[in-house]
Amino acid sequence: MKKIFTIAACLAFGAGSAMAQETFPRNGVYDERPGLVALTNATIHTDYKTTLNNATLVIRNGKVEAVGTNVKVPAGAVVVDAKGKHIYPGFVDMYSSYGLPEVKRPQRNWGGTPQLESNKQGAYNWNQAIRPETNAVELFKADKKQAEELRKQGFGSVLAIHQDGIARGTATLVTLADKRENEVIVLDKAAAALSFDKGSSAQDYPSSLMGSIALLRQTYLDAKWNAQNPGREQNISLKAFTEASRFPQIFEADDKLGVLRADKVGDEFNTQYIIKTKGDEYQMLKEVKATNAPLIVSVNYPDAYNVEDPYDARRVPLEAMKHWEMAPSNAGILAKAGVTFAFTASDLKDKKDFLPNVRKAINYGLSEEEALKALTATPAKLLKAEHMVGSLGEGKLANFIVTSGNLFANDNLILENWVQGDRYKITEVPSDYRGVYTLKIGNNTSKKLKIAGTPDKPELSVIGADTVKGKISFNGNLVTLSFTDSKKSNETIRLSGWLADKNLQGEGQLPDASAVKWSATFSEAMTQQDKKDAAKKAELVEVGQMIYPFRAYGQAELPKQETILIKNATVWTNEKDGKLENADVLLKNGKIAKVGKNLSESGAKVIDGTGKHVTPGIIDEHSHIALNAVNEGSQAVTAEVRMQDVVNSDDINIYRQLAGGVTTSQLLHGSANPVGGQSAIIKLRWGKSPQDLMVEGADGFIKFALGENVKQSNWGNAQTIRFPQSRMGVEQVYVDAFTRAKEYEQAWKSYNKLSKRQQAKTAAPRRDLELETLVEILNGKRFITCHSYVQSEINMMMKVADQMGFKVNTFTHILEGYKVADKMKEHGAGGSTFSDWWAYKMEVKDAIPQNAGIMHNLGVVTAINSDDAEMARRLNQEAAKSVKYAGVSEEDALKMVTLNPAKLLHLDDRMGSLKAGKDADVVLWNNHPLSIYARPEKTFVDGVAYFDAERDAQLQQDMEKERMRLIQKMLNAKAGGAKTQNPTIKKASVLHCEDVEHHEEESYLAY
Question: What's the whole-model pTM score?
């Protein structure tokens, strides 16, 4: 038996190299050594919860042959004495682009011709963002430089994913050994990959997040139909999509809301995704946990902001500051909540930050056991590869790291990384020079020199009349020192020299330029306590409070539903009782319990309404707040897209509009196409999740549009491909769409009439999300809000509706409504208009401020809407303009922003007036509600005061205190040597009807 006593002595031996290239011809002598190595006397962590002391690990031909405390070393094995060292399973990164070509995204050419159809040749999917036929194993090429970078962080294997497109195909599990591709591939198809990112596709559709979601949903349906109907359509992509469904499904999400969106798609198609996140999941922990999705968690923490300049500091929003502080606690919070997760290094620009950031997560509350589990066992199990990687056991790949001590200790070093039994040296065992020395410089009086810290990062202190910190570095046997003579001095002494036995000596230069000789005689070793202090992890870091939502005006605890009695106010009921003076309103269990005089209720919180006004909450029939996208402007008909898929519950405009008395908003698709997307109707429940904002049981609505936008009049000279290009063409789009919808409905009716036996022999029609939505309109289950301006087109739309058998529920904008109000009433359409917008484009040149009043007087249900995040904060004033311009009564004007939009949304049985049994969506104003001086003091949604003027004032003070605390913490971090980033201007989303892209406007303040 050959014995080697140090790990360093096992230099170029490759234990896994024997018999590794059986199918390849060899030029030269064939090395038939058995690749047999035994590492003895080590502390071996066979998995995240099992540690063996003084144990032996035997590997043969790249695999583990035996591991334990009573393992007999086989004859002929090379023995490596690993005494004092620790051995851990190699890490597994299940989200990597290792070895795969870079994804080249198309350059956005705003003046160029759009690409409407796929230009990929062959029997593939119609959309280039759907590319499940991609197999990473066919693109994979081992990369020594990338592999070395990952091995230094402890990784032994990674899942290589070609991160291109929405359906990305299959990923391959590979090791990081420097071998041929054939030898490092562990599982050729280990998982399927998906996202909402269209990647390299230059095709117009999808142009928005909601379009990506709709495309993925339709792909699931098409793949199922294709599998059930072989021979109907040869589609390589759909077949590959179905085939890939048997593998673990990994979904890349952009943020915490992306996690929820992805899970919603997965639930619809009975698929549990493994979701790769960005590290902000802690901000919506309850909702993320409820998905039951295992997560792949990023450890890419933001740098502190450079906030020394007060003006620069104002550019950093509160949520960015808080995320900087709290991001490292993400993993610990997830672990305590019982969320399964694995770590990834994928988001790090510099991979050498990976292990330090994992250790940082431990300092912020993650246990060492959970950290090791997330690095090894969890990714292996999720990939169904636990029989090969993730732990050390008989028959598994010999992927392991050798460390100088506890993996997560501050002074620990990864010394070696063994991959498939091949040894890769990472770090030399550093010499330990720590201790106390007697320092003599020239003929000067001796001082004490203390070297502490860790062997790889020594720290220098020079002790004389006082103690000063200095700098010291070693390079082999060479040493360099620099320090000042005292704390008061700014003159630096510089010394360089070498190690002689345990002592140091050499030459140097004093601040007066004179050369000197110096020596440092070793006097005592570093104490065990000092070594423990250097090795121990930092104490748990305390962070600020979590707030909901995670941004300015978020709160540690959301306001709760209460029993509220408002006394002695002027109450605008919007009912037959009209306006009541000195009346009371009782809110109980989220409903309006009573409206009247001299009311009382035991246990109610009483609010004195003397001199104040109470109205129903304002309802905005046409809004684009709280959305991550507004237009899927790529195709003429996009009825399949849904605004509910892109609701952003963190949008500050929710809070701002609560401060303006708004309680409910219809979030509409934009006006880029004749048939837009499905609406979302939300209540402004600030701090709740997107799903919790939805108005329960509300009817479905959809956005249609007419005019300049849909025929792309102002989209540039190259936008001449998409039909329609004229107002005549718009009419034909509607006729064609509803004709196809009728044929689609009839096909399903015919199929559903068949007996079960006949159905078994008959191919079912293909489910089409676009046509299903149009059928809902035909059957009165979904209702149209139509963007409109010009009289002729409004008439055309009603004619098409009559011809095809549906109704237009609401004409929005409708600035020429006064010309066609009689026809609107006859058709049964309502109008939701601006109060006094005109002259902002050719279509509105005939707009008049009396428009709303004329429609109202002719019996059309008329609402005033915003279509604008700022205007929505003053809809009470917009309603008042109809009093001024058209002589509408004050009560009827108020109804234009309360009861009338409720009627248009079919919600007037639940909101829009103050009546017992209706939702407690109520506003308490400090003044006449139609006055420009009126401000809401409290805005209740379901009886919860989501806005309270007094609490708002306190929140502003609290936010300033929190900002100052975080600014000071960042200043301290910078002073301590932490990396910093320069503040950037905060950009707040403000979307409008005509925004084709996600438009951003600058906001210089943090809130």
Answer: 0.91
